[in-house]
Design goal:
There is one protein chain. This protein has two helices and no strands. The protein is mainly alpha-helical. Residues 1-12 have a biased composition (Pro residues).
């Protein structure tokens, strides 16, 4: 346990039983058609990739 709060993935977004890398390819694939989407919808796609990467990275150190 850490003596101070540390950043991590959103609560409930990671299960020890799942492979944290499983969603990365799917999330990154969502960036493939950005040029066909309105600019306002880009944020949602980037946010999904950011969340998946956060989950994967936080699992490396078991944060």
């Amino acid at each position: 346990m850490h003596p101070y709060p540390v950043p991590g993935p959103p609560p409930g977004s990671f299960s020890q039983a799942t492979d944290p890398r499983a969603g990365i390819d799917e999330a990154v694939a969502g960036l493939d058609d950005l040029d066909a989407l309105p600019l306002a919808e880009h944020v949602e796609r980037f946010d999904a990739v950011h969340t998946e990467l956060t989950v994967a990275l936080s699992s490396i150190d078991k944060v």
